[in-house]
Specification:
2 helices, single chain, mainly beta, 6-stranded mixed beta sheet
Length: 343
């Protein structure tokens, strides 16, 4: 993708909705983000892409009934162009850089983007980040300016991976029960790009009725993948791909000297970029594992996604590819081989 100086903007509307799963039902209010202008490039269905040196302008409307909101641009420095003042007041921290946006009110965020890399946005008000109010932002740069550009062939928006611990009740309700009752704050589950069946239910029909997120590759190519953790609690997540090695090339938006590992650990708010080699000799599908530790270990919160080779677009989303290897068992022990973490 060639980067140029363009202005990307997008209206956003925040609403409440409900999700449930078949079998054992867990009803929960969630926060939804709705586009007002689908023709613009900064999309809010997961992964907005802009270019280094752009100015981002986002009009936010709060459609909640009673709660205020703010949007924090996680990792963005809010520095201005050379010899220009920055915009720290656009950082989205309630009662520090701004007052929360009241219900039925608009607020315009406008800030310059000086650095390329993997970032994300999320609500910084109350517990809204834990109930769905977040998404990724990829800041791209001309290929020649990325020191690790020669390590991959493709850097696709659909290979951005957002992972978070997931609670079966609204996050604020979980914390109230923990603080004033006998409840637990531990998350029951985990989501990958908003998808994935509850892994600790013995009802096999559930897994057949809720899709896994799929990441498609073509054999023989190298793919840059970007992982963002929106974990709410202290939930380090071990990331691994069955029968594949991962070459880490960036951490928290900044390039690093490439290192090839079997797995890596991502903590709350962190971002890792890795390169996956789609082997000429491989075909079919492989499990991508996301194993939660510490607070997530209490209820064995974890999730899977699918790395799928050469799959056609018309494949049923609920049908697992044939000849899938066995799904890995939950564990907090990294798989054998070199692994990496930031501690």
């Amino acid at each position: 993708m060639a980067c140029c100086s363009v202005l990307e903007s997008e209206g956003k509307v925040f609403k409440k909705g409900k999700v449930f799963k078949k079998g054992k039902v867990f009803k929960k209010e969630v926060l939804l983000l709705q586009e007002e202008n689908r023709s613009l490039k900064l999309r809010i269905d997961g992964f907005g892409s802009v270019c280094q040196g752009d100015t981002i302008v986002v009009d936010v409307k709060n459609n909640l009934f009673e709660d205020g909101i703010t949007i924090h641009w996680h990792g963005m420095t809010m520095q201005g162009p050379e010899n220009s003042p920055g915009t720290p007041y656009m950082d989205g921290v309630p009662f520090l850089t701004q007052c929360p946006i009241p219900p039925d009110t608009y607020f315009r965020y406008s800030f310059y983007v000086p650095d390329a890399g993997t970032y994300y946005y999320h609500s910084h008000a109350e517990f809204q980040r834990g109930d769905g109010l977040y998404g990724g932002i990829i800041v791209r740069q001309p290929p020649g300016e990325d020191p690790n550009y020669n390590t991959y062939d493709f850097d696709l928006p659909q290979h951005t991976i957002l992972v978070q611990d997931w609670m079966h009740k609204p996050t604020i309700e979980k914390f109230i029960h923990m603080a004033y009752g006998n409840g637990s704050e531990s998350p029951e589950s985990m989501l990958v790009n908003g998808r994935g069946p509850y892994q600790n239910d013995n009802d096999s029909s559930i897994e057949a009725s809720i899709p896994y997120t799929r990441f498609k590759v073509m054999s023989g190519s190298r793919y840059r993948m970007r992982v963002i953790s929106n974990a709410i609690l202290s939930c380090p997540i071990t990331v691994a791909v069955d029968q594949h090695l991962l070459t880490l090339i960036a951490s928290d938006g900044w390039p690093i000297i490439p290192i090839t590992v079997k797995s890596f650990v991502i903590y709350t708010g962190e971002k890792w970029d890795f390169v996956l080699q789609a082997d000429h000799k491989k075909s079919g599908a492989f499990w991508m594992s996301f194993m939660g530790g510490l607070d997530c270990e209490n209820l064995r919160a974890h999730q899977f996604a699918l790395l799928v080779y050469d799959e056609q677009d018309d494949v049923d989303d609920l049908t697992l590819p044939s000849n899938m290897p066995p799904k890995p068992e939950y564990t907090v022990v990294p798989p054998p081989g070199l692994y990496s973490h930031n501690l």
